[in-house]
Write a structure and sequence with these properties.
Layout: E1 9-12, H1 15-25, E2 29-38, E3 41-50, E4 55-61, H2 62-65, H3 68-80, E5 86-90, E6 97-101, H4 105-114, E7 119-124, E8 131-136, E9 140-146, H5 147-154, H6 158-170, H7 175-192, E10 200-202
Antiparallel strand pairs: 1-6, 2-3, 3-10, 4-9, 5-6, 5-7, 7-8, 8-9
């Protein structure tokens, strides 16, 4: 049974293909399930982003950055960098599923809306990923990839993106999430770019 009602991505049913994609993704992130309730949902993932050579990582909220303008910039960056094969892996503790497709405005919109209830990653590249967009259960994303890709997606004022995410963090209802998301923002802003390859950054609260 498919988890998502996808029209622009096909479900990957071949176990070997799924395992290959999961192995590729392991160069960028590690995820571990735990028994915990998160935003009222049973099941929780701890997701760790690795520092990769030449990569930057930008946290963005759904409200601030997943707009039509942002998606157009993302689409143009994907085409410019020849990232024509897109994969989605759902990392939900209750199920693991994969999808593949091509970059279009419709497919990017579908990724945004269909994966909102899940931990998921949109990426391209085997045996190692070219970039990764990690969705943390509908509220925020981490966009990670080589610097020229990141600048094409976000423009030259990267610091403004961190400031927007800081505002998003401070709008969170609980002090715990304010603290955790602020810490995440500061780590990615101040440490990720200059960190040694392989350094780990936890990106879930």
């Amino acid at each position: 049974m498919s988890f998502l009602d996808m029209k622009h991505f096909r479900e990957i049913r071949n176990i070997q293909e799924l395992e290959l994609l999961d192995e590729s993704l392991s160069w960028a992130i590690r995820y571990n399930g735990a028994s915990r309730t998160y935003y009222g949902r049973q099941g929780f993932l701890e997701i760790t982003l690795f520092k990769r050579k030449g990569w930057l990582a930008i946290p963005v909220s759904d409200i601030d950055s997943f707009t039509q303008t942002f998606q157009q910039q993302l689409y143009e960056a994907l085409i410019s960098h020849k990232y024509f094969d897109l994969q989605i892996l759902l990392l939900d503790p209750k199920g693991f599923a994969g999808y593949s497709g091509t970059p279009t405005m419709d497919s990017l919109e579908e990724f945004r809306f269909e994966t909102r209830p899940y931990y998921s990653v949109l990426f391209s590249g085997v045996p190692e990923p070219d970039f990764a967009i990690i969705s943390i259960v509908s509220d925020y994303y981490i966009v990670a990839g080589e610097a020229d890709f990141i600048y094409q997606v976000f423009g030259s004022d990267i610091q403004a993106r961190f400031s927007q995410f800081q505002d998003f963090a401070m709008s969170e209802g609980s002090d715990f999430f304010k603290e955790q998301l602020t810490m995440l923002c500061n780590q990615l802003k101040d440490e990720y770019e200059k960190a040694e390859v392989g350094t780990e950054f936890r990106i879930t609260p």
